[in-house]
Amino acid sequence: MKAIGYNEAGSADNLAVVEVARPVIGPRDLLVAVKGISVNPVDVKLRAAMQPEGAPRVLGFDAAGVVAEIGDAVTGYKVGDEVFYAGDVTRAGTNAEFHAVDERIVGRKPAKLDFTEAAGLPLTSITAWEMLFDAFRLTEGGGEGKTLLVIGGAGGVGSILIQLAKALTGLTVIATASRPETQDWVRKMGADHVVDHRGDLAAQVDDLGLAPSYVAALTATDQHWDAIINLIAPRGQIALIDDPEALDIKAAKPKALSIHWEFMFTRSMFGTEDISAQRDLLNRVAEMIDAGTLQSTMTERGGALTAEALRAAHLRQESGRLIGKQVLGGF
């Protein structure tokens, strides 16, 4: 089957159409005919740094498509079902004609969205949901009277995190954005207040008369660390998704802060007992999209999946100026 992969880590120019074997599925797997994919920061990080071993490395960690085959132990899906999911970083990726995925991390595609647009939601929705309800241990309807600060609110995760926080909790949401277009976007997503992370972040938050109990550090955590420690409320909680080289963790002690790493691939990587939580939350997200409670975060539709289109999408991702999510169709 056709896929897009690379034989040498490094530039996006190394992405090319390759022929690879059609996946052989396991007992709990679905074989999905891929109809839409999206590009995430993990794609460009792995392409730049992870050298393939032998066969070309195929990336892609978001997909929407149609179930073409099911494993012997599959109970939740049948051939012909329309699904969306974020895959498993330890397995071959979704930039291919067909993809194998564990049914327990797969949700039913929102009926309101086409395959391409739906593919922009899974990874970011899982990340945002796990930050709110696993890392911060919030409950639906909880958080009344407290504040969440989202650093990097206009990106893929920030865009859906703002929406989920406003739809499912009582939190006041402050989002950071530095350009007029990104500030308009986070307001559209539902942010109550907007501050500029290029300025004095702690002073701007203080001017709002708010001390966030929760901080979602989605980008440049090391650059904002001192400000986060300064502005967060005592006994507050910080969750981060990026990879800072170093953080002064002792600075968190005087306020007795809790620090959480969010990595949405953990459940699939380790086959945790609650792995099916990702299926359940994706189904909730699909229901909320169809009900109009959540809106799509897609901002760029890049056409069919070709090597040229995927290279261009990787370059846009690397630019650091994307708003929301970019998506591509299937082959």
TrEMBL record:
InterPro entries: ADH-like_C (IPR013149), ADH-like_N (IPR013154), ADH_Zn_typ-1 (IPR014182), ER (IPR020843), GroES-like_sf (IPR011032), NAD(P)-bd_dom_sf (IPR036291), Quin_OxRdtase/zeta-crystal_CS (IPR002364), Zinc-ADH_QOR/CCCR (IPR051603). Homotetramer. It holds the Pfam family ADH_N. GO terms for molecular function: oxidoreductase activity; RNA binding; zinc ion binding. It is found in: Cytoplasm. It comes from Roseovarius lutimaris. Belongs to the zinc-containing alcohol dehydrogenase family. Quinone oxidoreductase subfamily. Keywords: Acetylation, Cytoplasm, Metal-binding, NADP, Oxidoreductase, RNA-binding, Zinc. GO terms for cellular component: cytoplasm. Residues 10-328 form the Enoyl reductase (ER) domain. The keyword Glycoprotein does not apply. This is Zinc-type alcohol dehydrogenase-like protein. CDD domains: AL_MDR. Its main location: cytoplasm.
